[in-house]
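Q: Joint fold for the lines below.
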Amino acid sequence: MALLDVRNLATELATGGETVRAVRDVSFSIDAGQTLGLVGESGCGKTMTARSVARLLPPGGRVSAGQVLFDGVDLLGLPEAAMRDIRGHRIGFVFQDPSTSLNPVYPIGMQLAEPLRLHLGLGRRAARDRAVELLDRVGIPSPARRMDDYPHQLSGGMRQRVMIAIALSCAPRLLIADEPTTALDVTIQAQILELIQELCAETGSAVLLITHNLGIAAGICDRIAVMYAGQIVETGPTDALFYTPAMPYSWGLLDALPTVDEEERLVPIAGGPPDLAAPLAGCHFAPRCPHVREVCRVDGPPMTERTAGHLARCHATAPEGWLR
Amino acid sequence: MKRLARHPSALVGAVLLLVVVAASLVGMVATPHDPTAVDPLARMQSPTLAYPLGTDQFGRDILSRVLAGGHLTLATAFFSVLFGLFIGGGIGCLAGYFGRTVDLGVVALMDILLAFPAVLLALGIVAILGGSVTNVIVAVGIATVPVFARVARAAVLSVVVRPYVKAAIAMGCTHRRILARHVLPNILGPMLVLTTTTIATAILIGSALSFLGLGAAPPTPEWGVMLSDARAYMQLGWWLTAAPGVALALVVLALNLLGDGLRDLIDPTSRQVGG
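A: Joint structure:
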């Protein structure tokens, strides 16, 4: 059984009189210990998907349909108190901006000890000792001395290491990392990703990695799901998705990746994503798709299997399509 | 404490406040002369060795009266602001944190209260409750409630949207824990600064009420009462109003210097590295 099984999730955001259907019928699953990359451009609904899973939607947001089965329990039906016990304990979070995700008025040691005391019931001394170990584990030099530093005394990369230590402090079954490296230098990015990968392997945590960077996803994910305009348009094992992408949008994403060896120009995807507040007919990508045909504009394609475990939402690359 | 010593204006404020408070405490038990003893032969004397700050129209020693009256002025202001801070700050925090209907109601109520000048509000409340020092404390306290509520609410609103509050929710903290551990410490700075300036305001409102005969009443040596008593004789002797006036100004200055300094010290981001 999958650790996390999201079924037909739909999330709406009420903003200024409009209802934005940010997530539309999203289904995916993550097995224990597995890493899934949720990839897509800004505003495609990937963050809202993750927030729906943990029920951390902003004001005005609500899940309108679907199930989020975590260890077989539907999180959407849990009382708030039970949900609090899951957050930070069974599901850990790493956010995008480490410089503001730490409370400026407390030393980092205290913030690291908080979940330990809250969820594991450790005493002050035990939590502190454990916090020092964790800081050491995430690669912070002389951790015992760093315990009393305030967040502003650390560099961005160090802060993100602290955030990772906090997120993994209770050995969660699932780590949700929302653009964990976006705010960091490129040189630090690789280190942080490696750290996440290494520590999660150690604690056996599954990872839901949210990123707009296919390269990052390729580096550490077992499976990748590409999101576009509130839907998952293609999902499959990382290799399958990279070597045999089966959806024009994925092709576009791959073409937009910079490569080292050739002096090839990056090819942008023409146009912009659709307005999620307006009703959409047919395939969401049809207006930007170079291979579009009449059927795409009228009839939204379902997710169909290409190879084992590799699904895509496209008429053209379906077995009876015109791009076979 | 060590850092306080390195902050010059905070240090000056703290020392000044300490001096005033100490002098007032001494004044509670001992003064050079009896602060209420009338001496017709020694009336309206300018400062001399026997009467360093002169005497008033009844021949009472002004230094003794300033010393003896300090604790009343300070304590009234302090307790009323404490009252306003807890009630107003509490209301503001809850309104800012939970928002929605609670927030709307609180904001409307506070706007109504703020529409009245603080002195008038306090005056009305004392008029209802009756004039006494305790009632002045309550009245001035209530008059400061909307100020504290508004600032607390605004500060909380700016804090709850910060990512670390989101992170605390994602960590599984309860509302109470988030409020107490993540929100409150981050609004302490503005609240502290506001408290110091509001104590100054409260001193003035309390004095105004005494002036109108609703708080401490003559012959009690209270700074506000002294100022109002001396008002009629101001042209005849500058020292009549100088002493209580300077005392009030010093306290206000001390409070402001200290408040600013404390704000710098409490906010860890404005603390110098290695400080």
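Q: Anything notable?
A: The mean pLDDT of chain B is 82. The domain at 11-23+56-268 of chain B is CATH 1.10.3720.10 (MetI-like fold).
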